[in-house]
Design a protein that fits this description.
By secondary structure, the protein is an alpha+beta fold. The protein contains five helices and five strands.
């Protein structure tokens, strides 16, 4: 796989597949087909097969994809298979909302610091 040759449009669809596969896994599914995944995300089965095949062979014709395996591979491709320390700039309403959002942690993003140019906010802890 040469990442420089993968079109941005394909890279942009991978998080969509990742979220759908995670929902399927959360619902107890173990395998899926490109047809079933396509129905979840509104993309044709052929397009999904083409997109995923850019990164290797992940499924078998007739048996489909192992959801757990494909989740692991997509996380690895998107580099969300690790913990990322991130910094948030701005501690206003949006900054507070982002700091308190619980959806980042389970995707590997850990907010370690928040910056703001308002001297009143400097040194304050965001709950």
């Amino acid at each position: 796989m040469n990442a420089e040759k993968i079109p941005d449009i394909i890279i942009g669809r991978l998080p969509v597949y990742l979220r759908a596969l995670q929902r399927m896994a959360d619902n107890g599914l173990k395998t899926t087909s490109s047809q079933e995944l396509g129905e979840h995300v509104g993309i044709s089965a052929a397009q999904i097969r083409k997109d995923i095949s850019q990164f290797g062979e992940f499924g078998k014709q007739g048996t489909g994809y192992s959801i757990a395996y494909l989740l692991d591979k997509l996380r690895e491709i998107l580099k969300v298979d690790r913990k990322w320390d991130v910094v948030l700039v701005g501690a206003g309403d949006m900054g507070h909302a982002l700091a308190n959002y619980q959806g980042f942690a389970n995707r590997g993003f850990h907010i370690v610091m928040i910056f703001d140019n308002d001297k009143e906010k400097v040194g304050q802890k965001i709950d």
